[in-house]
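hiii, so i know i said id send this last week but things got crazy w the move. better late than never?? heres the sequnce for the chain we talked about at the cafe, plus the structure i predicted for it. fair warning i was half asleep when i ran it
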Amino acid sequence: MKAPFGALIALVLGIEGGARLGGAPAGAALVVGALALLGAWCIAGRARLAIAMAALALLGCGLMQRALDGLDHHEFEPGEVVEVEGTLVSDPRPQRFRTDALIRVAGADRIVVARANGTDASRLGVLAAGDRVELTGRVAPLPPDSRDRWRHAVTMLDDTEVGAFTGPRGPVAVANGIRRVVERGTRPLPPESRALLLGFLLGDTRGIPDDVADAYRDSGLSHLLAVSGANVAFVLALVGPALRRMRLGARTAVALAVIMLFATMTRFEPSVLRASVLAAVSVFAVFVGRPQASLRALMLAVIALLLIDPFLTRSVGFLLSCAASAGIVIFARPLAQRLRGPAFVREAFSVSFAAQLGVTPVLLAVFGSVPLAAPVANLLVAPAAEMLGVYGLVASLVGGLVPPLAAVLQPVDQVLLAWVTTVARATAALGGSVDLRGLLTLVALATLGRRAVRLVATRVSPAG
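okay and structure toks below
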């Protein structure tokens, strides 16, 4: 376990070092790092880990510098009007008076933010990830606080005019087709409930009202609206009976294809990437006959993702997803063993509380505080949230394939969503959060209280 942990720390430190050094081609660092990593593979003993850590630090530094250099050096000149053809990287983001979309420009292999207004905003808003579109717009710099920079967007096309567009082909077309089936199956629900269910199932939060999103965030339940490992596990469970009938090689290939298809459906959001790559690492490890412990597999998945995209260290969703997974792996089972009561209550609470323990450092670092009611809110909604992930997906798929059944199946989802949202609003209304100083105080008081109880129990025991 020490090896992947040390490798991950070295890689993250290298990425942060690259961020401080700034953009550069970094060819030498990348070549030396790659050769050193290859050399570590061929060496046995303790030297292997030391060389691998040094190699990953160099690779992290070089990859971050190269990614930053790509943002600063591109062929788009501010103020010029350009005509481009490209592919939507993710679904458009409709707002009140405009629509934004990330576009990968054909030929240039650059990502730009297309911002359209008026009728063009409507035309852009009906497209989906994977669609190809022709655009004309005026090059403008990205806003200083734009998060799209960390998604490799180099500039913006303002006042974009939307021309001809065509749908995707191949696996993306299949994934979009399944996604449309799920969306069609949710149509009988009221708008707010439908938007929430799409958040639970697909991570699509675009239609959720701001006040509802705020309630989920303030109650510590916003993670429910991001696709997680549980969603990936359930999708694999759905195809499990067919997989068990296949040979190992075919089973591995089909499982990996299902994971990739689901990731495409959910638009490769950071939490989806973490969950999908972790599942892929586990599936591949079984194929090669080297099953990995959960924490080790998680660290290997994170290392692989950061080597592909060092900007993921700037994604709050990615950090929260990784932290929650680590918390569950490390703390959930010990907590469940120490608690008393029915198994389903102990397991639900232990998983919820373990995830909260995991994400607390990230929340403190990013937002400065954590909601006090989060553990209670998560415990209250855990059974409903699990059922939404299982029943909700089946009901939406069946309802999408046979529309008359959707009106029969979806009232159950509406009841479950109403309960989760009620808990979110109620716990958010209670307010209360704790910063780092307050958290340390609570931990200290809890420790002192536990010792005091033990001391009293020892003094009043018959043996005393």
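btw DSSP finds 17 helices and eight strands in the chain. thought thatd interest u
miss u guys!!
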